Amino acid sequence: MGGSPEHRGELLKLKGLGQYTAAAIASFAFGEAVPAIDGNVYRVMARIFGIRSDMLSNEGKKEFAALAKLLVSREDPATYNQAMIEFGALQCVPASPNCVVCIFDDRCFAYRHQMQGQLPVKIKKLTIKHRFFNYFIIRQCDKLALYERRGRDIWKGLYDFHLVESKAPAITPDSLTIADPVFQKLVSKGRLTEIPKVYSHILTHQRLQVRFWWLEIPETERIDLPHGMAFYSHEEVEVLPKPILIDTVLREENYL
Ligand code: SF4
């Protein structure tokens, strides 16, 4: 292997090679005494030694790494790593491991405390999605155009206004309507007024930043609404099921 990196440290400098792969290559190919820790090995260590730290946190990873370093065989790290991985994959499986026929049955913390289902501890971080909503409240003769939200998105079955979602806070309404000729035509027939307040709305997995524009269409104009929308009278708007945010804006704008 002339010129090839022969140590885990060297391997780690190679682009795209993670800790686990570098350790596995170092031990399997070069006999280096470094532990290869994959999900199986985390599970085996957590259960046998009763490690209750979150295996996804930095502190938890350090604790597992320190123990793994102590455990790894100096004589035959390749066989040791292979054995740990396979033991986790075949015997100490994630759901319902067969502890009665396990070689560690007399010393395994999880088995003794019946905590196989709780170990290892993995606390998934909540991923929060940031979204930018831009609503156009189309009004003609005191009627508002709304549509019922369908599909797999938030607020299914509730009514809201013409919505253009953007990847970043919108700078001008022009930038929002340019991709939609039908709506652009509608805008050209009316008068746009921005509601100065920018609303923040927090959902479990999402943070919405929401802006609103009134689009007043003169009574005399004949218009085509975007597909799926219809005009509703004041009384109808009042009783239609709406997201709280839509209700709030209509009250703050003194429509409701
Ligand atoms: S006794 Fe059960 S939980 Fe403990 S190492 Fe064996 S299979 Fe895993």
UniProtKB/TrEMBL annotation:
**Entry cofactors:** [4Fe-4S] cluster
Q: Which GO terms describe its molecular function?
A: 4 iron, 4 sulfur cluster binding; 8-oxo-7,8-dihydroguanine DNA N-glycosylase activity; adenine/guanine mispair binding; metal ion binding; oxidized purine DNA binding; purine-specific mismatch base pair DNA N-glycosylase activity
Cite the Adenine DNA glycosylase C-terminal domain residue spans from the record: 135-251
Q: Which UniProt keywords apply?
A: 4Fe-4S, DNA damage, DNA repair, Glycosidase, Hydrolase, Iron, Iron-sulfur, Metal-binding
BP GO terms, sorted: base-excision repair; mismatch repair
Superkingdom in the source lineage: Bacteria
Q: What class of enzyme is it?
A: hydrolase
Which InterPro entries does UniProt cross-reference here?
DNA_glycosylase, HhH-GPD_domain, HhH_base_excis_C, MIG/MutY, MutY_C, NUDIX_hydrolase-like_dom_sf
List its EC numbers.
Answer: 3.2.2.31
UniProt remark on cofactor binding: Binds 1 [4Fe-4S] cluster.
User: Which reaction(s) does the protein catalyse, per the Swiss-Prot or TrEMBL entry?
Assistant: Hydrolyzes free adenine bases from 7,8-dihydro-8-oxoguanine:adenine mismatched double-stranded DNA, leaving an apurinic site
Q: Which family does it belong to?
A: Belongs to the Nth/MutY family.
- Purpose of the protein: Adenine glycosylase active on G-A mispairs. MutY also corrects error-prone DNA synthesis past GO lesions which are due to the oxidatively damaged form of guanine: 7,8-dihydro-8-oxoguanine (8-oxo-dGTP).
Q: What is this protein called?
A: Adenine DNA glycosylase
